[in-house]
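Appendix B. Extra example for self-study. Work through it before the problem class; the solution is given directly after the inputs so you can check yourself.
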Amino acid sequence: MTVSSVQTAPRALAIPDLSAASAALTLTATVLVASLAYYFLGYDQGAVSVFGSDTHVHEFVHDARHFLGFPCH
Ligand SMILES: [Zn+2]
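Solution. Structure tokens for the complete assembly:
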């Protein structure tokens, strides 16, 4: 068995847009999403819940909260 030497045309690499405005928008969106995830995983419960005294979000992320070491009850 021999190694074939099939030549393929070079592929163009996708170069991301690295402008300052694009980077700022990406970082802002990342911080916003991470902050929301951090709040809902770590602090949203009971009386201080965004949705009033409803604990649906708390119960939904309850196992993740304990897995990550956030105090709960
Ligand atoms: Zn708990």
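Self-check: Helices lie at 20-42, 56-60, 62-68. If your reasoning did not lead you there, revisit section 3.
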